[in-house]
């Protein structure tokens, strides 16, 4: 078996491995989101302990901070699925039916 055939056979496996590693790296953002949410509610507890009369207003701000942090966290699985589904190997792209390049005839007006 020559080197060229071996390289052609190993390319799809390398692409699959790279896709899996990229998807795993994209989900690391979930850990950052968890830390961010913890910081939001930790700050809420400290703020309410300092000034209990502002608890209602501070809770609204905390929920807003939670929602924004969670919205950023939703990008992690989106990127992981994008990495896994968009990048395809050469063998996978040949399995699909080729696009038809026939001209579409229109009816005369």
From TrEMBL:
PROSITE patterns: ATPASE_C (PS00605). It is found in: Membrane. It is a multi-pass membrane protein. Its main location: membrane. The keyword Membrane applies. Keywords: CF(0), Hydrogen ion transport, Ion transport, Lipid-binding, Membrane, Transmembrane, Transmembrane helix, Transport. The chain crosses the membrane at residues 21-41, 61-87. SUPFAM superfamilies: F1F0 ATP synthase subunit C. CDD domains: ATP-synt_Fo_c_ATP5G3. It comes from the Eukaryota. Residues 21-83 form the V-ATPase proteolipid subunit C-like domain. Belongs to the ATPase C chain family. HAMAP family: ATP_synth_c_bact (MF_01396). This protein is one of the chains of the nonenzymatic membrane component (F0) of mitochondrial ATPase. F-type ATPases have 2 components, CF(1) - the catalytic core - and CF(0) - the membrane proton channel. CF(1) has five subunits: alpha(3), beta(3), gamma(1), delta(1), epsilon(1). CF(0) has three main subunits: a, b and c. This is V-ATPase proteolipid subunit C-like domain-containing protein.
């Amino acid at each position: 078996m020559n080197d060229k055939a071996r390289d052609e056979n190993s390319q799809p496996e390398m692409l699959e491995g790279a896709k899996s590693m990229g998807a795993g790296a994209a989900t690391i953002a979930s850990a950052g989101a968890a830390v961010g949410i913890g910081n939001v509610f930790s700050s809420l507890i400290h703020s309410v302990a300092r000034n209990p009369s502002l608890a209602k207003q501070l809770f609204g701000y905390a929920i807003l901070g939670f929602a924004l942090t969670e919205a950023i966290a939703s990008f992690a699985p989106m990127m992981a699925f994008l990495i896994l589904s968009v990048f395809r190997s050469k063998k996978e792209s040949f399995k699909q039916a080729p696009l038809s390049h026939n001209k579409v005839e229109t009816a005369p007006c």
